[in-house]
Write a structure and sequence with these properties.
There is one protein chain. This protein is α+β, with helices and mostly antiparallel strands. It has a domain of 150 residues: Vitelline Membrane Outer Layer Protein I, subunit A. The chain has 20 helices and 27 strands. The strands form six sheets. Strands 1, 2, 3, 6, 7, 8, 9, 10, 11 and 12 form a ten-stranded mixed β-sheet that branches. Helix 2 packs across helix 3, helix 2 packs antiparallel against helix 6 and helix 2 packs parallel to helix 9. Bound molecules: 2-acetamido-2-deoxy-beta-D-glucopyranose (6 copies). The site of one 2-acetamido-2-deoxy-beta-D-glucopyranose (NAG) has 4 residues, from loops. This is Jacalin-type lectin domain-containing protein. Keywords: Signal.
Length: 735
Amino acid sequence: KMKTPYRLLLVFLLVWTAWASEPPEGEDLSFFVPDIPKVETEDVIKLLGQARALYDKASESPATAQAVATALSVAVVTLPPVPLYRALRLAKDIPADAQKYLPAAVDLLAGIRSFAIAPACLDRPGIPHTTAGQFKYLIAANLFDCEAIMPYWTLEVLRLALLLQGDQRVLSAFFHNTSSVHVPPEKGLTHISIYESGSTDNTVLWLQVAEALWTAAGIRSFVVTNGSLTRQTLMDPYNGKFYKQHRIQFLATLRNAALEPLYGAPRGAYDYVYFINDVFFCAADLFRLSHLKADIACGLDFEVWVGEKKGRMPGVTQRFRRSLLSTPATASTAAVAAAAAKAKNSSSATPVWHAAMKRMSEVHLEESARQAAADARTQVAKVKPRYEFYDTWVSRDLGGNPFVKVDPITRDTRTIDGLHRGWPIPVKCCWNGAAVMSAIPLANGLRFRAGLVEDGECDISECSLFCEDYRRLGAKRVAVDPSVRVAYLPWTKEFHGKLPGGVGAKVPWVHLERNSGLTELEKQWSDTQGCMSVQCIPLRRGTEEADIHSFRVIDLAANNYTHMFLEQLKQPPSPPFEPQSCNQIMGPYGATNDGSAFDDLSISLWGKNPIQRVTYTANSTLNSLQVHYGTASAPAHGGSAGDPGSLELQPGEYIISALVHFDDTAVHGMVFGTSKRRSVTIGGQNYTMGILPRGVSKAIATPCPGASAHVGRYKLIAFAGTADKVMRSLTLIWS
Ligand SMILES: *[C@@H]1O[C@H](CO)[C@@H](O)[C@H](O)[C@H]1NC(C)=O
Ligand SMILES: *[C@@H]1O[C@H](CO)[C@@H](O)[C@H](O)[C@H]1NC(C)=O
Ligand SMILES: *[C@@H]1O[C@H](CO)[C@@H](O)[C@H](O)[C@H]1NC(C)=O
Ligand SMILES: *[C@@H]1O[C@H](CO)[C@@H](O)[C@H](O)[C@H]1NC(C)=O
Ligand SMILES: *[C@@H]1O[C@H](CO)[C@@H](O)[C@H](O)[C@H]1NC(C)=O
Ligand SMILES: *[C@@H]1O[C@H](CO)[C@@H](O)[C@H](O)[C@H]1NC(C)=O
């Protein structure tokens, strides 16, 4: 028989083990991410100073611009994953005037990279380089609260821009033989356009570093920080209800803002647009996409999961997926200027080449050490990170059906084989975190847009509509290359191999060519030219979630919404909707389908009996309402729960304004303004301070709510509505 203390101990151990095998609260869901030193605002300001110093140097003359750009392209070559010995070979024979700026260039890039959370890219990516320098590209992005991504992203975008431009050194870093690349002067040009608005972390500061760096490197950059586009609250001028701007409308507006440089340029200024979300990517991978010469080409985007939980990491937001709270950080303009001045001063005591290279080699070492540490943590972790294909909302396979998250992620039988082999496959639509698209339809006037829901179009994402518009306009060559991968968090080495969902390991381009993978793609594209059906999964009405139960198949050839949209663009922007005469019946507000209807208008004798007294009961909702019109009293409507209250009007005093608070089940209360300048609240809640609780809306229930000229011209004469034990809905009648 066991002695009691032992039994207790055993019980304790059992309980403890059970507890310990549960994932603890606040569990680390980013153990597979390399740790980086904490980035202070001063660190970024210092880098900004260095970047500005180079930028200023480059602005002095075309000759210094050339020299600084050359130095920066050599510096880009020294970044991981290109081994330093290979980089050094390329750095040897650079012109003497560029040599001068090399230390500062390498020092700046080393500084940025030392703060970068960097996923491992392949140093021999197995991609072609025949498009280098042959086309004009615009790299576009919308950024928002993504400071953790910025150091890596900034440098990788620069590397991509240089690859696309056909920069000999950056190409040579990845390819054995680049003597076949002939860059026609002025032909291959890459520009960058970024639109940022509303960030409260250090994204803006990082973008300032990026802009100075990219420009100094000779890449023309259009960077808008602190842009004025935020999701608006709009008022319906007819019933005074406030609502949030349609999310898709807002996102489309943001994307268009990033493409302003294209829209404002002459036709032919750009051949292709690279639209890149705030994702982790490898420049060489995205460069590969340009070789598909598709109208829209994408890779695959992955989320990282740890067991049943999404991997996460602070400072990564992805506005186009979800929004998170973040901690504000600001840098005064003066502080930036001071740091820039200081950097300029110290750069007169130029860092020497040897010291700069030493710094970069430390960055390589630290980065691989951090990577090794992350790998080691992954090795011992009970639950390993798992990759799951993300963008099932936008992606459509060749038959027009959504991608799924399990093998095979695209179900069309014509492409399953290709997917499993890792070959590029034709699809109807994709976005997947980053996409390359032909600039022609956009140059011809197409824009990102929301669905023409009023006209019967499906309420789907701006990217889905974009694919549909392209298809209607004849741009039907859309492809997903499974060898091109981006992710919302940094990845482990396994990311380049076989992935869940039936995604084959990355396939070298030569392998595709040898095995007619590209001929197959061309053939499937031409075989499916006439196929115009695609499945639509609309947003649930009034929500921001896709309603998978109300999917339907759309024939893109049936209704030409693209045409309708383009026609609408030609119309001069319609002035804000202004009712001809003011609507004097405002509402209903609340839930009109519940409760029984009442209407006090006849008791008020159409205003001859003015409102004198209003009594009510309310708890969190308005539960009953009884109005005394002159000598006549209307019946009490609603139930009796809650606290009673009343409003007494003085002789000759009228209600001349009203604000109604309500949700989709009941009316919560009202705030009246009277002709004697009194403000009176009806209901149990006082919403006059601060933000409305979730789900509660407000409406200005005074006629012509948007027009100040009408203020005070109307008086409230009666109420109508629906009620049971609570006030379900109210309509206000004015004269
Ligand atoms: C590099 O490629 C060019 C053109 O394809 C070829 O003529 C040349 O022999 C190659 N050089 C080497 C070293 O392989
Ligand atoms: C951003 O713009 C708003 C107005 O558009 C301005 O009030 C604010 O100070 C700006 N913030 C910064 C950091 O420039
Ligand atoms: C920069 O150097 C000049 C002269 O060398 C000095 O007068 C000035 O105070 C320095 N500025 C800063 C910000 O260090
Ligand atoms: C839709 O309209 C556009 C613009 O008028 C036109 O170019 C296109 O050919 C039409 N597409 C279809 C499928 O009807
Ligand atoms: C308020 O009263 C209504 C009607 O009796 C009742 O259904 C509701 O639960 C009450 N709400 C609160 C918060 O007490
Ligand atoms: C509602 O709150 C505001 C601000 O605190 C206050 O001025 C007002 O008197 C309050 N109204 C009622 C009815 O409590």
